[in-house]
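Can you please make up a whole protein chain along with its backbone structure tokens because I've never seen that pairing?
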Amino acid sequence: MSGATRCDEVAAEAGLGERRRLYRTSRRIGDGVGKWGLGLPGILVLAASGWTWWGAVLAVAAVAAAAVAYQKVPPRSGLVAVARYQGGLVLHHAGGDFRALPWDAIESYEYIPSRMEFRGNLSVEHFGRVLILARGRETPFVVSKLAGRYEPGLAEAIRAGLLPRYTAPLHERFEEEGHVLFGTVLAVLPAGLLLDPDDDHPTAPLPWSDLQDISAEDTRELRITERTGPGRGGRVVTRVLADADVVAAFVRETRAKLLAEQRPE
């Protein structure tokens, strides 16, 4: 039975829904074999050719093939793969252990990007990591050396899965206070969105019916598309705002709820 199949079985038992993506980890040069170890096939090829120039070409090709093949080998310890589902993650550990993590079982996460450290004439690569802290654990699960360098994609997927947890307090505040203010950038009102609420010349809020779309390019840029008329492209307004993806999700959910309440039964 393949690891992916077992992940699907564990996900089905936990009720996580359909699989969206499988992130596999891989070994990197230095994990049990150094550069000299990968160079051994090249040395053997070169020696077999009688140290000729064409042997040198074949030796380079052999080393490159060995490096590529080695990096496709699963690690001997830690996480072998992370499967993402609609309702959470399944962690596949070396040795055959599998663990389901529904979104509500994840306490927090952290993404540490990869970086290069230069020490004189030498460079050392620190691979990116995604740290996943599950409820009830003191230490996080560490996802590192993802094949294809997909750490940012996994971190973004985890954040998207946790969005309902981030938007819940905003919905509670909206119900209690009747509005939610995001500094001097945006106010969410029952009638719609008010841009720059502390401006010296405030304008009327953008009605919900005129809001075509709201999205976040990243966690710090909010994109608001205003409907300008049938058959015409919407006018796009951008604002810099912390946790823009959370704000965008909250606005979309609030808009859908308020418009549904306004529809006649």
